[in-house]
Design a protein that fits this description.
It comes from Musa balbisiana (Banana). By secondary structure, this protein is an alpha+beta fold. The chain contains 5 helices and 7 strands.
Length: 181
């Protein structure tokens, strides 16, 4: 055997050992915890086995998120792992708008499911639910109206006006600039 295959075998052994070290992380109340972030929103998620109750800031999630697409995005980690309706979810939200909060809750639920059952990580990771969306609002730059938007362009137009002049040999027109809006 050459050195590269030996190194590959060593890497495989390390991966198997780290896969064995994933252990369920549950608190004394029998809940798993996950934190999710998106834009300016932060979601603190606690899940435990139950009958499918979903509470966000002490309100039912359908009252907190009235738009159906937002509710569907919240439940996607459960549908990816085929555990819809088997968990009670309690969520504490901070900051941001609706879309940022939905994204933060989705990441938090995924991380909480992973900490409860490490075997679900492959399903969640392949669906992309464990990855935080790094996009944030771009800052405003000096000399710009917004981050990239420029102010309205105002240009000077060269207008020729006839001018009575004492010199006959000179051109009857003299240039003058006027601002045009």
């Amino acid at each position: 055997m050459n050195a590269t295959s030996t190194r590959a075998e060593i890497e495989q052994k390390k991966q198997k050992e780290t896969a064995k070290t994933w252990v369920r992380q549950v608190d004394e109340k029998g809940r798993a915890y996950g934190t999710g972030r998106r834009k300016c929103s932060v979601a603190h998620i606690w899940i435990r086995p139950g009958d499918g109750k979903f509470v966000v800031n002490e309100k039912q999630y359908d009252a907190y998120f009235p738009i159906l697409d937002d509710r569907a995005k919240l439940l996607r980690p459960f549908t990816a792992t085929k555990t819809l309706g088997l968990w009670d979810v309690n969520c504490a939200m901070e900051g941001g708008g609706v879309s940022g909060q939905v994204g933060a809750i989705r990441v938090g639920i995924s991380r909480a499911l992973q900490s409860w059952e490490p075997g679900l990580q492959s399903y969640l990771k392949s669906a992309g639910y464990l990855t935080r969306d790094p996009r944030v609002v771009e800052r405003k730059k000096p000399g710009k109206a917004k981050a990239r938007k420029s102010f309205q362009w105002v240009y000077l137009l060269l207008i020729l006006e006839p001018v009575a002049d004492a010199y006959d040999d000179a051109s009857p027109y003299i240039s003058a600039t006027k601002e045009v809006r």
